[in-house]
Amino acid sequence: MxxxxxxxxxxxxxxxxxxxxxxxxxxxKPGQFVIIKMDEKGERIPLTISDFDTKRGTVxxxxxxxxxxxxxxxxxxxxxxxxxxxxxxxQASELMSxxxxxxxxxxxxxxxxxxxxxxxxxxxxxxxxxxVKADVIIxxxxxxxxxxxxxxxxxxxxxxxxxxxxxxxxxxxxxxxLKELVQNEGKKYDLVIAIGPMIMMKFVCKLTEELxxxxxxxxxxxxxxxxxxxxxxxxxxxxxxxxACVDGPEFDGHKVNFEEAMRRQTMYKSQESLKDExxxxxxxxxxxxx
Amino acid sequence: MDRMKRIPIAEQDPKIRATNFEExxxxxTEDEAVEEATRCLNCKNPQCVTKCPVAIDIPGFIxxxxxxxxxxxxxxxxxxxxxxxxxxxxxxxxxxxxxxxILGIKGDAxxxxxxxxxxxxxxxxxxxxxxxxxxxxxxxxxxxxxxxxGLTCAGELAKDGYDVTIFEALHExxxxxxxxxxxxxxxxxxxVKHEVExxxxxxxxxxxxxxxxxxVTINQLMEEEDxxxxxxxxxxxxxxxxxxxxxxxxxxxxxxxxxxxxxxxKAYKEGYNTPIRTGNKVAVVGGGNVAMDSVRTAVRLGAxxxxxYRRSESELPARAEEVHHAKEEGVIMDLLVNPVEILxxxxxxxxxxxxxxxxxxxxxxxxxRRPIAxxxxxxxxxxxxxxxxxxxxxxxxxxSTTEGLEINKWKxxxxxxxxxxxxKQNVYAGxxxxxxxxxxxxxxxxxxxxxxxxxxxxxx
Lengths: 290, 460
Fold this sequence. Notes:
The structure holds 2 protein chains of 2 kinds. Chain A is α/β, with parallel strands linked by helices. Chain A has 10 helices and 16 strands. Chain A has helices spanning 22-27, 68-74, 100-105, 117-129, 149-155, 174-184, 198-211, 244-247, 258-265, 269-276, and strands at 2-11, 14-20, 33-37, 45-53, 58-64, 81-82, 84-89, 108-113, 135-140, 159-163, 170-171, 191-195, 214-218, 234-237, 240-243, 250-252. In chain A, β8, α4 (117-129) and β9 form a beta-alpha-beta unit. In chain A, α6 (174-184) runs parallel beside α7 (198-211). By secondary structure, chain B is an alpha/beta fold. Chain B has a 5-stranded parallel β-sheet. A 5-stranded parallel β-sheet of chain B has the order 6-14-7-8-9. In chain B, strands 10, 11, 12 and 13 form a 4-stranded antiparallel β-sheet that branches.
């Protein structure tokens, strides 16, 4: 059992949890993720690690309620436990295998879309600890959805909030902000790391390809085991099939087939909406057998 | 009684069982088991034993069954195997123990598997205590993976008095017994859970949700957690795909994903949260036991199920019993057929599969006749779901994170045949991680041999 040590609302439908999982906390690295199964009947859902504390033995996750399981997760309180919590999974961020000297020479921009701000944070924090200040664009639909801005500011160079409705920071999409910084303000970036909804990552990649900036994305396909044994999370990268859970989740964004990846994300959409609307008992759904 | 004829065993009616996940074979009653056991000639030089990978004293336990000494029969098997209720169900006995039964020459071989299963089930129902071990040594041994190889190795070492911990990546112990083999061949909550419990009763600890290579490394286990020896039984769980166009369309699955959703995550059961694609017309590409398990699962979820296999029926690698069961349940066999492309609609959903017909040529190096495509014979199967069941290979995760652990070109861990010793000191390996995908009983044999070698090494 994995106990919830802290829980905090960050924005409407977005909350943070510190989970007691000493083995995971000890081995976790920025860029990796965990899989949680809440109870006996639960499904296995992947969530990116947004922080970890080796001393306390805790791992931080940030969750957005988008469906049946995440809504159920919101009902868990401090002191409650999850049945299964496994990780760290996937490859650590590639930044960690570069030399610090090389990193210091680079101008790095992170682009965080919505919930994607959470997995961006440990990477920026890690860079800061190495003496590298990265800039961050945080995108959200409106002011109340901008999360972790203060934490991010404490470890980043410049943080640029953007909102779709202009209620806070720059009014418009993260791609427009990046374009403005590069084309109007003469900023130069050697590397962009984009984490957020696939559609956002796709458009960031389209833009950075034009701008000639190397771009890393963190892919979030459907997963089951997260250990490479099923291929549910497969993607096409540079014409080759890759398993996001073991080969990624980070890939060269200019080589990812986003059309296919976005299509595969919708595989269980009709089943998900049925259980979300409570048409089926619990979240459970079956075919043939009634 | 005709000594040459096997006592028949009850099975669920094919029409009914094709709509549920209950076990197909219902097993012998006590009287039927005694009657079948009575046929055994109790050979002085029993050939059946020579073909059992863990060398169970087969005539020994069968004589106890014959005399209605069921508890004694349990104890005889327990000396050799920790998983009789599993092996009695899933071993290919026709090519192992039963293939050498003397009665098989003129009539039916003794139903050794069914009798073993009867004894395993009796042990569970009557809670026979088989938890006896030698005095504790206090020496810690780590076992990676809780499949048949790991469970057997851990059980044997615990019997020798070692302090054994199994590390399992998934949330439940059992490996392929829980995620791969379906409920209708191997019930999970009763049979598998109980045999795992038996291993725990010997004092074995099982830590689930630990991925060796990510959560912790072998070096950490040995250096920081004082494990003196390690056995790797991590299996061969990496699925293969064909590499044909359309394989990433929505509706194409690896058999591992399909079976994991259904068996481990219980997607077929009301109230469980994992969804599964049921499909109306499902093709399973491949001809092994995993392909049969997948297609029979699809049928139970309400689909029309097809097996698409590039050779003919006599080359099917699946057990004859499973092929027979599949056909009885309405599975359609599309033999001498090979897929060349999976076709999708504009939304990326599978709508069909382009295939080519095959004929058999000369035998190849493995002795099997090589399938050759017949030019111009392409045709399209209308489908909405395709399941790839082409085999699996070992997951490279452990080898890639363990310095000094040698692997071969098939990514299998290199280990000595008799002992399981790897290129790394005090690290042993066995089962599919070494051999590539094979059988439950061969994995158990490897686990047993390694346990023996580890004990030898530690008592020297």
